[in-house]
Amino acid sequence: MARPEIDRRRFLAAVAGTTMAVTAAGLAAPAAANAAKGMLVPPGKIGIQLFTIRNLVSSLGFRAVFEELARLGYQNVEFAGYSSPAEPGITVQQIKQLLDDNGLTGIGSHVGLNAFRTNIELELDRAEILGLPFIGTANEPVTAANRTVAGYRAAAAEFNAFGAAAQARGLCWYQHNHQNEFRFANDDPSVRLYDLLLAETDPKLVFLEMDIYWAYVGQHIAPGFDPIAYVIANRLRYPLFHAKDGRRSTAANGYDIVEFGAGDIDFQRFYTSIGSRGRHYSLYEQDNAPNTSPDVGGALGAAERSFDAIYELRG
Fold first, then answer.
1. Residue ranges of the chain with per-residue pLDDT less than 70
2. Distance between CA 247 and CA 256 in Å, rounded?
3. Which CATH fold topology does 46-314 show?
């Protein structure tokens, strides 16, 4: 793919002068007091889900975004699609080259369940080209009407099949949770759906990406579990986390999504409790980052401050 020059002033205007704005904002606290303590998330395990900065991927393209992510210190990228209006016709081969050019690693990708159902081999082809070790979905296993014991058992069987197909290609298939997986079955209030999913899927075929924010929302709407306990009991099944923060609120979910480090979720407790330091990848995600004020750097400013906050976690 041709590499047209990117006007640096245009880029900084698009991201609202991130570097200066972030520095002036001073929202990321220094880690000097904790410098002697061990890092809970090593730099090589910090990444970003590109959905977080989808507005910039769309308006500026992968090349410009990858350059900025590398500058901020991110080393891993999780995809949420492989196209950009700013780079019409870009191929996964070209995206792979852009990753390499910027010293980034593609670590995973969110793909819709229907895409796996209709042409899973195509999705696995793309993952192989990008060098992804993991590929999965952020879709809930079933529709709301099918949150039943039978519905989740059928979904688990489907997930096992997807996992087997991925394993045959040397890949690991995973599911990313939201809050509803932690509800109880419509037809059996004694059965938590997430427990059923864990029990019915083969741990060698189906891996899990815990979105920590949505797990705590699940705890709010369907109390009776601790997200940490799931990881401790199934450490090898959680290669990926979404490091997403939330501030307690009176909303139905119990939390509002905020920048990492600006919320009330106790990530120090979370990472300290699960142990296995350095085994898991932590991918910053913030659904509403594109709404971040230009005065503090927009979505890229949020990504910069959040990287710093993850980097500064000490145990």
1. 1-37, 277-278
2. 5
3. TIM Barrel (3.20.20)
